[in-house]
Amino acid sequence: MFEAHFQTFEEPEAGVALTARLAALREELARRKLTGFVVPRADQQQNEYVPPSEERLAWLTGFTGSAGLAVVLTHEAAIFVDGRYTIQAAKQVDAKAWAVESLIDPPPESWVSTHLKAGDRLGFDPWLHTSSAAERLAAACAKAGAELVAVDSNPVDAIWQDRPQPPLAPVAVHSLQNAGVAEAEKITQIKSEIAKLGVDALVLSDSHAVAWTFNIRGADVAHTPLPLSYALVPKDGRPTVFIDHRKLSNLARDHLEQSADVREPDAMAPTLMALAKSGAAIALDNATAADALSRLIASAGGKPVRGSDPIALLKAVKNATEIKGTRTAHRRDAVALARFLAFVDREAPSGKLTEIDAVEALETFRRDTGALKDVSFPTISGTGPNGAIVHYRVTRKSNRRIAPGDLLLIDSGAQYEDGTTDVTRTMAVGEPTGEMRDRFTRVLRGHIAIARAVFPDGTTGAQLDTLARQYLWAAGVDFEHGTGHGVGSYLSVHEGPARISKLGTTPLKRGMILSNEPGYYKTDGFGIRIENLELVVAADIEGAEKSMNAFETLTLAPIDRRLIDVAMLGKDELDWLNAYHARVRAEVRPALDEATKAWLDQATAELKA
Fold first, then answer.
1. Which of 327, 350, 453, 528 is deepest in the core (most CB within 10 A)?
2. Containing domain of residue 114, as a range?
């Protein structure tokens, strides 16, 4: 009945079976007179999702998380992961071959500086590390009296016999009715930023920036419609896009050639070097530009100027067409969500549904819209103790039945050509405990505090983050992730530079879309998260002496009333919840079948104090 087309539930190869690969890598390193090598979980552009041909860390170690790094030395090896992945890494790698260490505190560099010896040569691939990452590694090597060596070719690739081919998905033109602003206008904006930077050219090392600038999309990586590519925008003259020509139909090529020269990826190095030979200052994005690009520019006599990619902020502020599109996408998504939530409510109490059933059902309801291009990330469907694992991904091995007395946490999103969605709902199956209701209501109050926030222009996400945590803190609990991230327009579901978190230093601007997702996780017990997407809009306050902003909630899905302790809510909070549910009912109900309408009426009925 239901099936998932865009996600799988298989367990990857793991553990002892992969240890022969480690031995083969050590032989290759010895042949190259290297003492060790650094293997990041990265492609050339530091993408969140990477094509199978770039999954070197997973191939070598068995660890499949989205963030990590391995260091292989002659007699020892370590894999570094953050707190989200400690449990996963311990299960996936061979504990006899790999030590599992912290990626954050302390960072891998401190391990490197204490495990290398004087005279050691640690190799790294300069195409897979940013310059700042390479500098930290070089400093760690110097501390040990060792040397960091940039390799010409990656030694992992030399031993990876059946390495997949790089992706060649066709490029699609992102039409003006969805993009809203033509390429020529965007290039003018970018050139004005280049002038402010005082440089001769800007390298677009982030494929998201290329996709946004030239109004193209693709399918080279999972879940984000990216065509892997680079571009060079000079302060004067035409930009150049570097992309594999095999991805381009005549239509896509004609579209690109209206605003740029189009060349093969291997033309990028000589093009950059020719520009650098004149002593040009060339701007590079700190977050995505490979160290190899800085080296290339400097070696040819140019000046690499590292900083923030100005396109990130331009892209984060959505135009009127993108905002209209995302509202449409959320209304469409809401119909699929209502059908899904009604289905779970009907079927889960029998104890027959599993976490995988939930993933497959939700994707099917979204495909039924006729507009789904992909899921925006693999659905997190966790019940009972699995719900307490923040980045849980269900496999056939971990799959749990959804039983009465459990909570089901389902975090999912969709890619539609007119917008990207991301939503989390936590559902009670059967009768929830008093503790579940208390924690859920505290999370809800934090969620409402963000949704109702009014703040002056220039306010950052870090300044708002506490609003989401205050009621959890009052009970002596917290959550270990940010409150919200930026979201793209038919691009990445995790988009910078703005976010609502302790680290969110970018001011929030009107037109930005951010998630609002506080949570609570009881280890081995249950997980709770409530997530809506919010659009930053102007706040209309009579007598205001400053320019003020607020949030417009885009997501339209019921919040489980059975988990709310109404006595804990203030009048304003209850009014917000009832108004939100009335809006969900008004906007979503007309598109539903009769049975789902009846369910929605009940799920959004007014709550009384």
1. 528
2. 15-159
